[in-house]
Design brief:
Chain lengths: 101, 196
C-alpha cells in the first residue's frame, strides 16, 4: 500500500510539475490585478480596463474586494478577466477547477 | 479558509504573513506552503519587502512553535488525562514521548520543512517529553529558516506558477512520506523473515 501511495503521489507530482511549464495559472478571488497581470504576462492596465476599474499604482486589493465594491459576484469579475486574457492572446487551457473563485 | 488567508496576504502583506504563520504553527490547518510561495512571488513583483517577509515568516513560525511547546510542557499531560482517556490518549502520550527520545532535535528539524504536517505534533510532544528548551529553540529556528528559504525561493523563481508549484510540492511530500513508510516496512519485514 505504501508503494502504491508512493507511485500515485509521485505521478501526481510529475503531472503538476508538467503544468509548471505548460499552463497558465487559474484566476482566483484572492489574487490582486497586478498579481494576475504578472502571472499571465500582460500589462495590468489591460485587466483593469476589462473590469472597469481605474488603475492604481500600488493596488493590493484581492478580486473579492473589487467584486464587493462593484456589488457583483467574484465569479463575474473572474470571467471578465479570463475573457480579457483570451482577447490578449492567452489561450493556454486552465486545469480542471480553474474557473472557480 | 484558503481563499481568505491568501486574500489577507495579498491585501495586508507582512502583518498577515506573521499572523498566519503563528496560528498555523500552533496547529491550525492553514495553507502555509502556498502562503510562503505566494509571498515569494509578491517579493519578485516588488509588492513585499524581502527582508521583512523573511524575518516575519520565521518569527511567526517560531512564536507559534514555542506556544505549542509551552502548551505541551505545562499543560499537555493534564489536557491528555482530562480530555482523552477514553481515546487511548495515555498510550499515545507514551508513544509521543518515546518518539521524541528517539528522534530528538532531528525530529524537530525535519518536521519544520520536510514533513511539515507533523510540525505542531512535534512541538506538543517536545513539551510533554520535556525536551530541553534551548535545544528545541535551536533545531526549531534552523528548520524554520530552511523551510522559509525553500518556499520563498521557489515562489520567487516560479513567481508566475504558484498554484501548480504548491500542488507539485504537496504531492511530492506525500510521495516522500509514503516512500519512507515503504522502506521502513520493508526493513521490518526483512528483519522478521531473517529471524525465522
Amino acid at each position: 500500500m505504501a508503494l502504491a501511495a508512493t507511485i500515485t503521489f509521485g505521478y501526481r507530482a510529475s503531472q503538476h510539475a508538467r503544468r509548471l511549464r505548460l499552463e497558465n495559472e487559474p484566476i482566483r478571488s484572492w489574487m490582486s490585478v497586478p498579481f494576475i497581470a504578472h502571472t499571465h504576462h500582460v500589462p495590468p492596465e489591460t485587466l483593469y480596463q476589462a473590469i472597469g476599474v481605474e488603475p492604481h499604482p500600488h493596488d493590493r486589493r484581492p478580486l473579492r474586494a473589487i467584486a464587493r465594491a462593484q456589488n457583483r459576484p467574484a465569479a463575474a469579475v473572474i470571467r471578465d478577466l479570463e475573457n480579457a486574457l483570451v482577447r490578449a492572446g492567452h489561450t493556454h487551457p486552465a486545469p480542471p477547477g480553474g474557473k472557480g473563485p | 479558509m484558503r481563499e481568505w488567508v491568501l486574500a489577507a496576504l495579498s491585501q495586508y502583506g507582512s502583518p498577515a504573513l506573521f499572523a498566519v504563520m503563528t496560528v498555523s504553527s500552533i496547529g491550525a490547518p492553514l495553507p502555509v506552503t502556498l502562503l510562503l510561495i505566494v509571498t515569494g512571488s509578491l517579493i519578485s513583483l516588488g509588492v513585499m519587502n524581502l527582508w521583512w517577509a523573511i524575518g516575519l515568516a520565521i518569527a511567526g513560525s517560531v512564536l507559534g512553535d514555542q506556544i505549542g511547546y509551552a502548551i505541551g510542557r505545562w499543560g499537555g499531560t493534564a489536557l491528555v488525562s482530562r480530555f482523552g482517556p477514553a481515546r487511548g490518549a495515555s498510550e499515545r502520550l507514551a508513544k509521543a514521548e518515546a518518539q521524541m527520545r528517539r528522534w530528538g532535535g532531528l525530529g524537530v528539524f525535519f518536521s519544520r520543512w520536510l514533513v511539515s504536517p507533523l510540525g505542531p505534533w512535534f512541538n506538543f510532544a517536545s513539551g510533554i517529553a520535556e525536551y530541553p528548551w534551548a535545544r528545541f529553540v535551536f533545531w526549531d529556528v534552523a528548520g524554520e529558516v530552511v523551510d522559509t528559504a525553500i518556499c520563498l525561493g521557489l515562489g520567487y523563481v516560479f513567481s508566475d506558477r504558484v498554484q501548480a508549484l504548491d500542488a507539485a510540492l504537496g504531492d511530492f511530500t506525500w510521495a516522500l512520506v509514503a516512500l519512507l513508510a515503504a522502506v521502513w516496512l520493508g526493513w521490518k519485514l526483512w528483519k522478521a523473515l531473517r529471524s525465522h
